[in-house]
Automatic annotation (TrEMBL):
Entry keywords, A to Z: Signal
Presence of keyword Signal: yes
Endpoints of the signal sequence: 1-20
InterPro entries for the chain: AB_hydrolase_1, AB_hydrolase_fold
Gene3D superfamilies assigned: alpha/beta hydrolase
AB hydrolase-1 domain residues: 99-356
Full protein name: AB hydrolase-1 domain-containing protein
Species name: Zasmidium cellare ATCC 36951
Keyword Signal: yes
Length: 376
């Protein structure tokens, strides 16, 4: 008890250029869903068998893998963190950040050397408010059925509901007044990483007017996307180690390195960063992978803000290890024809987990510079 209190105080004292508060938000959402043709995963052997099934060249993906179309609705607990810069340095802009698979919201807010590796700290320092949340199925949010509930369209609707709450003030009424005396920001920038970028790009495509700007990190639609295959995740069953139900899988440490760490191993990241990246990993429900196709390549004529695509140079899963030359602004313009600006940038000598590489801070600045150049 005393130790818990002490740790609480220490966590509170972690100095940043702002205040943060943890929230548990009941989110009501409804979406199309499906029963997919998937094997069951209840042990380690079946986890590897699922990965081989998923990576097999003749296994159907997308609409062909649907056995039955369904709908899902419910109220889900979403754990979140809302941070606001110190008064005076604030920009009137809230970033809404969505993390990818194999992680939860801690992806954005490293407690290991936060001054160098926390995107949240960097955003506060640059004057942005920032909202991060554990996607459904991860962290301290609810962990419903891995096959039929945690699916991409539902997660898109959860992101929409959270955005509506941010825009209409509900989010701020949930936050304690002892931490926040500020009025809610009036502009909203959506930031994604990896699967969170699938969601963010689909969100601005479908609900363009709800977003004033977007930053898509660690994702670009290209011919090598996911070509490394699910066996590269090196998964085991998450039932015992993470207390998850059937169908949740979790990467072993070598899978975390395969997917998230890249570049020159002597200079791009340290063994400590890999260790931390492994320590904060999260299980993934396999229905999420099966339904991810619905988020890809949706045209977004209603999005009118600026959008930045930020790619790690040596992203293995997204670009099969080399992203150079894969972002074509002309093609991106076909997807977002009315965007105020479209830019693509490469963060050199980095793998997929941008914040967990040595030069992360310089990468964060590429984003803040892009936003500032476009009035955000
Ligand atoms: C499910 O819905 C999609 C989209 O409407 C449709 O193309 C597909 O044929 C349906 N699948 C089944 C099995 O009903
Ligand atoms: C704000 O948006 C949320 C999410 O859609 C909704 O539940 C709530 O009723 C809205 N509140 C107001 C005051 O409009
Ligand atoms: C917010 O305002 C209240 C009452 O005016 C005050 O007691 C509190 O210290 C303020 N909090 C912050 C973070 O400024
Ligand atoms: C494991 O999860 C179940 C279902 O969510 C919950 O009832 C139980 O308390 C959890 N056990 C532990 C040890 O956390
Ligand atoms: C996208 O293409 C259209 C048509 O060529 C052009 O008018 C527009 O300025 C382009 N947008 C960006 C952001 O480059
Ligand atoms: C660090 O990142 C910045 C921004 O992308 C880049 O300009 C710089 O060359 C990088 N430094 C190294 C040592 O890779």
């Amino acid at each position: 008890m005393a130790l818990t209190l002490l740790l609480g105080v220490v966590a509170f004292l972690h100095s940043r250029d702002g205040n943060c508060q943890q929230l548990d938000i009941p989110v009501h959402a409804a979406a199309d869903s499906a029963v997919y043709d998937l094997p069951r995963v209840d042990n380690d052997l079946e986890a590897t068998a699922w990965a081989i099934f998923d990576a097999t060249r003749t296994t159907p993906h997308g609409i062909e893998s649907i056995i039955r179309n369904t709908t899902t609705s419910g109220t889900f607990n979403i754990h979140a963190q809302l941070c606001h810069p110190h008064l005076g340095s604030s920009k009137d802009i809230l970033q809404i950040a969505t993390h990818g698979v194999h992680y939860d919201s801690r992806y954005w807010d490293s407690t290991y050397q936060p001054a160098k590796h926390s995107y949240v700290d960097a955003a506060l320092k640059a004057g942005y408010s920032i909202f991060t949340y554990d996607r459904l199925g991860t962290g301290q949010s609810d962990h419903p059925d891995a096959y039929t509930v945690v699916q991409a369209p539902l997660e898109l609707e959860i992101l929409r509901q959270l955005t509506l709450m941010a825009r209409n003030g509900t989010l701020y009424s949930l936050a304690s007044k002892t931490h926040y005396n500020t009025t809610q920001p009036s502009k909203f920038v959506h930031v994604g990483h990896s699967f969170g970028s699938f969601l963010t790009s689909a969100f601005i495509a479908r609900y363009g007017p709800l977003s004033d700007g977007a930053v898509i990190t660690g994702y670009i639609l290209n011919e090598y996307l996911a070509s490394a295959g699910s066996t590269s995740f090196s998964v085991e069953y998450a039932g015992k180690t993470f207390n998850r139900s059937s169908g949740y899988v979790v990467s072993k440490k070598n899978g975390i390195q395969n997917i998230f760490f890249g570049g020159d191993p002597k200079t791009a990241f340290t063994p400590e960063l890999l260790e931390y990246g492994n320590k904060i990993k999260q299980p993934v429900p396999i229905g999420e992978f099966a339904s991810a196709f619905s988020l890809i390549g949706n045209p977004g004529p209603s999005f009118r803000g600026p959008v930045q695509f930020l790619l790690p140079e040596f992203d293995f899963y997204i670009c099969r290890g080399d992203c150079k030359g894969l972002a074509d602004v002309k093609i991106l313009n076909q997807t977002y024809p009315n965007a105020a600006a479209i830019e693509a940038a490469i963060q050199p000598n980095s793998g997929h987990a941008l914040p967990l590489h040595n030069n992360a801070t310089a990468g964060f600045l590429l984003t803040f510079d892009f936003l500032a150049r476009h009035g955000l």
